[in-house]
TrEMBL record:
Organism listed in the record: Nitzschia inconspicua
Residue stretches making up the Fungal lipase-type domain: 205-303
Record InterPro entries: Fungal_lipase-type
Protein name per Swiss-Prot or TrEMBL: Lipase class 3
Pfam family membership, one: Lipase_3
Length: 425
């Protein structure tokens, strides 16, 4: 229990002393001694560590127990801003929002424009899924955010046009977690989707992105050093020449907080689950997907386990590849991972990307920096540009994201079909 607490003035004074004595003064001395290379390395290493120390979201959450990081001019304004932040970071873990499917409505491929080369996978998770599309993986990644009460109906609505009986194996996941004996944190949320192929099946693991405060802590601990290294590289003249040493630098910085990093290692649970699936004779093929943080975890786990992963707006891992308990290789990231990166989406800009990725358009007029991070907006862009194929069009693409109205050969009225569509952002 805390007995005393330092005043603000004491805290600012101590911070000033730390910066001057442990950062500014050593740098000045190193330059005076004409050891400029060592000085630059000191600036980079200590600068990144200092930023992580003074702007540590983990410390804020542990100190306050809340996400109350935004003040307001009045109590009501402060409450409103904090409520928005809490909604953004904590979200609703029982999200019952559903997509509204439009049978007999479709988007043709936009042949007048250059299509995305990855609309249809050249190498799907299994030959049995030869018509599996990038939109399918995006849809599955969106379901990791949804409540179990709506997932089955959403799967039926999406895959029924192709006659596929895809199921959510929630019981399988729960049983595995029990077998792990409490080693899997409740904050690690993922789903297993089963695609039957005769007597066998293909399993696609979908990892949830950032929803809770704990997810935000994971983002911060696993990727903050890589983000700061990117900023330093950008600021330094000819910063790109330092790229080969940045993974080692990021590793060294993360080692200083290795215990904190290990406490939030979602990727360990996902990797263990994928390994368990690979040992299960029922599944002849395994794939990974996820959006945002979930995409980043999918990328890490794929490079560790050797299965393929498709991340949607996922955090990358090339700079931070040495920081994980099972270190990632450049070959593993380049051969096993794929990242869909909407234009103007800031999240997949963090860390350096591997060689396989697809930039896609984001037709949004919003000034919100996260407007292009919406997984449903990405799904709509893929359906519109690549064509719906044997999937239904979605009301929300038009009503929430202002895509053109799909086509139909029937006499159905769009407005009446989409009257109950859920507004999404």
């Amino acid at each position: 229990m805390r007995v005393t607490e330092a005043s603000d003035s004491v805290c600012w004074f101590m911070m000033f002393l730390e910066v001057v004595l442990f950062y500014v003064w050593p740098v000045v001395v190193l330059f005076i001694l004409e050891t400029s290379l060592i000085a630059i390395m000191y600036i980079v290493a200590v600068g990144i560590s200092g930023v992580r120390h003074y702007f540590n979201i983990v410390a804020v959450i542990e100190e306050t127990g809340t996400m109350r990081l935004i003040p307001g001019k009045s109590r009501s304004q402060t409450w409103l801003k904090q409520a928005r932040l809490t909604k953004e970071t904590n979200g609703d873990t029982e999200n019952t929002e559903t997509l509204t499917f439009l049978p007999e409505w479709y988007y043709p491929p936009q042949l007048g424009n250059t299509q995305y080369p990855s609309c249809v996978f050249g190498k799907p998770p299994s030959p049995a899924l030869e018509n599996f599309t990038l939109a399918d993986m995006t849809f599955l990644s969106s379901l990791s955010y949804r409540s179990s009460s709506v997932v089955s109906s959403q799967l039926d609505g999406w895959f029924s046009p192709s006659g596929q009986n895809v199921t959510d194996e929630a019981d399988f996941v729960d049983e595995w977690k029990l077998q792990e004996g409490g080693q899997v944190s409740k904050t690690v949320v993922f789903r297993l989707f089963r695609f039957p192929t005769g007597n066998d099946a293909i399993g696609i693991v979908s990892v949830r992105g950032t929803v809770s405060s704990m997810d935000l802590v994971v983002d911060n601990q696993l990727w903050q050093a890589a983000m700061l290294a990117q900023l330093v590289r950008l600021a330094l003249p000819f910063g790109e020449i330092f790229t080969p040493i940045l993974p080692t630098l990021v590793y060294s910085i993360n080692q200083m907080q290795s215990q904190a990093v290990q406490r939030v290692s979602y990727y360990k649970a996902i990797a263990r689950f994928v390994n368990a699936l690979q040992e299960n004779a029922t599944f002849t093929g395994i794939g990974l997907t996820g959006h945002s943080l979930g995409g980043g975890i999918a990328i890490i786990s794929a490079a560790q386990t050797g299965v393929g992963a498709v991340a949607i707006s996922g955090l990358n891992a090339m700079l931070s590849r040495l920081s994980f308990e099972t270190k990632l290789t450049v070959e593993g990231l380049n051969s096993k991972t794929f990242n869909v990166m909407p234009n103007r989406d800031i999240i997949p800009m963090f860390d350096d990307k591997a060689q396989n990725f697809q930039n896609i358009d984001c037709p949004s007029d919003s000034r919100n920096p996260l407007s292009c991070h919406s997984v449903v907006r990405t799904l709509c862009e893929l359906l519109y540009t690549c064509g719906t194929g044997n999937r239904h069009a979605l009301c929300e693409c038009v009503t929430s994201f202002n895509f053109p109205m799909p086509l139909t050969d029937s006499d159905q009225d769009f407005d009446s079909m989409c009257a109950n569509a859920t507004p999404l952002t």
